[in-house]
Design a protein that fits this description.
The chain is an all-alpha fold and 274 residues long. It has one domain. It is 75% helix and 0% strand. It is elongated, with a radius of gyration of 22 Å.
């Protein structure tokens, strides 16, 4: 019996050089970053949540609760408050990451991205780059409002820049958690509910707004050792002066652990078929 030849010919196409792949990956990442920024600027409700809400927190805690909360830091309660507001705002800003990725997954945008001839890493990297720019702008706006109501750096310009940088890195780390949540749950309403469930306890049961020592004893162990408090304590040390070494390595360890755990989880969730 004669074998019929197949009309199809398999072509052995060589992979492009690594420099070419890196260049294409950077280009794809920047294109998606620009796309995400345009979506952000055209969405007034998202702009309100990201920028106006932290400003409202600054004003409320400064003028409504500030007189009732006694702290022993240079400059009084407003100087105690601002590092906590910055960390909380960075964490809450990540909520938009989860919502956006869940919406894109639900509407089939992620599936279209997967089918396009683009770097697989570009979707998540583009989102994180856009989030970094968004976080930086948001934190600078909050700092400007803080200065208007009496906040002052007491430790010089260098530590002030480091404090803002730490706030941005902390926010990006939480964004990787939110990216995983959005890509894993894939339902916008469910992500919206779940995001508040885990963000509120972390930010409010911390040293953001009141000293941990004022909490009940059974709650202090959690509040003192969770990542939000540790990062805030380091930010306070940078802003106001004080011991930095212990909280510096603890903050670095927590942030590194978050990236190591949740970046691979987010990548796996992105690659999972819808």
């Amino acid at each position: 019996m004669s074998m019929r030849s197949s009309p199809f010919v398999a072509l052995d196409i060589p992979r492009p050089p690594i420099a070419h792949r890196i260049r294409n990956g950077i280009s794809d990442t920047l294109n998606l970053t620009e796309r995400d920024i345009k979506i952000w600027t055209r969405n007034p409700s998202l702009l309100f949540f990201i920028v106006i809400q932290p400003v409202m927190f600054v004003l409320l805690f400064r003028y409504v609760f500030g007189g009732a909360i006694m702290v022993s830091v240079p400059g009084g309660y407003v100087n105690y408050l601002m590092p906590g507001i910055i960390a909380q705002s960075a964490a809450f800003a990540s909520f938009g990451t989860a919502i956006a990725l869940a919406r894109q997954t639900q509407r089939g945008v992620i599936d279209r991205f997967r089918s396009m001839p683009m770097a697989r890493s570009a979707v998540l990297l583009g989102r994180l780059v856009a989030d970094t720019l968004r976080l930086t702008i948001t934190l600078l706006i909050i700092l400007a409002v803080g200065y208007a109501v009496g906040f002052r750096f007491e430790n010089g310009a260098g530590p002030a820049v480091l404090m803002v940088a730490l706030g941005v890195v902390f926010g990006v780390a939480i964004c990787t958690v939110s990216a995983y949540v959005g890509l894993a749950i894939r339902d916008e309403e469910s992500v919206g509910s779940f995001g508040l469930i885990w963000l509120f306890p972390l930010t409010f049961v911390s040293a953001a707004f009141v000293p941990v020592a004022s909490m009940p004893g059974w709650l202090q162990a959690f509040a003192k050792n969770q990542p939000v408090t540790i990062v805030i304590d380091e930010m306070r040390g940078l802003a106001l002066g004080g011991p930095l070494a212990e909280h510096a390595w603890q903050s670095a360890a927590w942030l590194l652990a978050i990236f190591i755990v949740f970046v691979p989880l987010a990548v796996r969730a992105y690659r999972r078929p819808g």
